[in-house]
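Running co-folding for 5,6-dihydroxy-NADP.
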Amino acid sequence: MQSFEYKCPTEVVFGKDAELKTAEKIKKYGGSRVLVLYGGGSAKRSGLIDRIETVLQQAGIAAEIMGGVHPNPRLSFAREAEKRAELFGADFVLAVGGGSVIDTAKAVAIGLAHPGKDIWDFWTRKEAVTGAYPVGVVLTIPAAGSETSDSAVLTDEETKRKRGLNTDFNRPQFAVLNPELTYTLPSFQLSCGITDMLMHTLDRYFTIDRNNQLTDEIAEAVMRVIVRNGRVAHCDQTNYDAMSELMWSGSVSHNNLTGLGNEKDFSVHQLGHELSAMFDVAHGASLSAVWDSWANYVMSSAPERFARYAEKVWGVWNGETEEKAKAGIMLTVRFFRSLGMPTCFSELQGVGIQSDEVLKQLASNCMYGGERTVGTFCKLDIPAAYEIY
Ligand code: NZQ
Ligand code: ZN
C-alpha cells in the first residue's frame, strides 16, 4: 500500500425529503446569502427549485437563483455566475443538479475566494488555489460523484479544452442525497450516470499497485453493487432501493475511497474528455465509447489484473488467465450495451468521426500536443491514444 492522505469532509444527508434540511445545513456552514445554481430546467420543472426557495425563505436565508448550466459546463457561464454572486454579496454557493451544476458552483466558489483573478487560470494551473467559498449540493443525478469529490471539470468552449482541477478546496460542505429526486431522469442520462460511477472505480482499480487488499475489495464490492442495481434501475427507474444504492455508490466511487494506497490511472477519463471537448459528447457516453478499446489495448500488460476483475466483479471463475480477462472485458461491454450506451465511436449519436485527421487531433489534444502522457497502469502517449481512438 502506498502512502496516502485522505480527507473527505462532506456531510452526507441521505433519504426521502432530505432536501428539506438544506437551509439548516447552509446555516451550519456559515451561509446567509446564497447563490443557488441549477441546470437547463429539470429542477425547475420538477418543482425542486421552488421547494428549495421556500425552505431558504422560511429560514431567513437570502437567495439569488440562477439557472442555465449546460452539461459539460462552460467556462463563460461560470464566469457570469461568479459576477452575479459577487454583485449579490453571496457567502455560500448551492448547487441543485448533477456534476455540471456542482462543478460550476465549485468554480464560482474558487473565483469568489480570489477576487480579481480569472477562474480559468486555476484550471490551467497558472494560479494556485488557496481557498474557496463554501458549497452545498442537492443532488439530482447519481453519476459524477462531484457531490463529495475533490474535483471540478470545466470546458473552455472557445478553445475546446476540457480540464479538471483537483484540490481539497473543491470538497462540498454538505451533499443532500434524496433518491426520489432522480425519478425524472431521462433513461439515457441514468445510463450515463451508471457508466460514469462504474468508471470512477475502474479508473482506480486498474493500477500498477498489487498489494492493497482492503482498497481492492471495497472497489470490487462497489462495482458489483453498481452493476446489480444499475440493471434494476434501468428497467424500473422509480425503484427506491436500487436508486438508493446507486446514489450512494456514485458518491463512494469518486470520493477516493476506492483508490486509496494506489496510484490512479484515469486514462479512460482523459481520453473521454477530449471527445466531449470536441463533440460535446455526454460524459458517460464518452467513457463507454472508449473503454473496450482501451481495455483491449492495455490488457496484455497485466492480464492477471483483468482476470481478477472478471472473477470478483463478474463471477468468471473458469478458464485460463487470459480467457477470464477477455470474458471480463466482454461482460463489461455487454453491460454498457444493455444500458443503451455506445461502446465504440460508430455508436456515438450524432458524432461522425470518419476522418483519420480527427483521430490524430484527438490523440494529440489528449496529450497536450506531446507535453504529457496519461495513465499509470499503462502509460499512454500520442501513438497509443491514436490506436485506442
Ligand atoms: O440541465 P438539466 O435540465 O437539469 O438536465 C440535466 C442534464 O441534461 C439532466 N438531469 C439531471 N438531473 C435530472 C435531470 N433530468 C431530469 N431529472 C433529473 N433529476 O441530466 C443531464 C446531465 O446533467 P449533468 O449535471 O451534466 O450530469 P452529470 O452528473 O453526469 O455531470 C457530468 C459532468 O460532470 C463532470 C463531467 O465531465 C461532466 O462535465 N465530471 C465531474 C466530476 C467531478 N467533479 O468530480 C468527475 C466526473 O468524472 C466528471 O468528469
Ligand atoms: Zn467521470
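Result summary
The longest helix spans residues 213-235.
The first strand starts at residue 11 and ends at 14.
Job closed.
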